[in-house]
Amino acid sequence: MNVSAQEINKKIHDQVHNKDILINACTREGMATFPEFKEMYDPLYAAYTPDAATMIELKKLVKKEKIKIVFGTWCGDSKVNVPNFLKIMDALHFKEKNIEFIAVDGHKKAENGIIDGLDIKMVPTFIIYDHKGIELGRIIEGPKTTLEGDLLAIYKKKS
Q: Which Gene3D superfamilies match (predicted)?
């Protein structure tokens, strides 16, 4: 089943965390306005300042890649790293249509097999693909250095 046939920004009650969460394909707006996610999203997005030197390097390398963000609205690491990652994407003028958001439940699963084969063990997982759909690299749960630093390392491997 393709994503367009699914309900976007679908809310369910997650038994693992005993709270309402988003599941499956989401929009940025749906995620950023989801009450539990929004309370951290707004202040963290506003406060994050990507490293300027790293961003200059990244701007030279970013082309027409696609990014898949698998996250949990219930997950602390997602609540911190997704807004910060999006701040970087916005600063790079990365086209939002090239970012796919997929929310998972407490078991790190989504419905209808939309993350089958992605090998998601921790969230958030940021998967960077080239324009042909070949995976270039991942940032899993949190960055090794900084989000922009890890992203630069992925892009440098490509070039």
A: Glutaredoxin
Q: Is the dihedral of CA 69, 61, 97, 6 positive or negative?
A: negative
Q: What angle do CA 129, 134, 136 make, to 5 degrees?
A: 55
Show the domains of the chain with their CATH numbers: 3-158 (3.40.30.10)
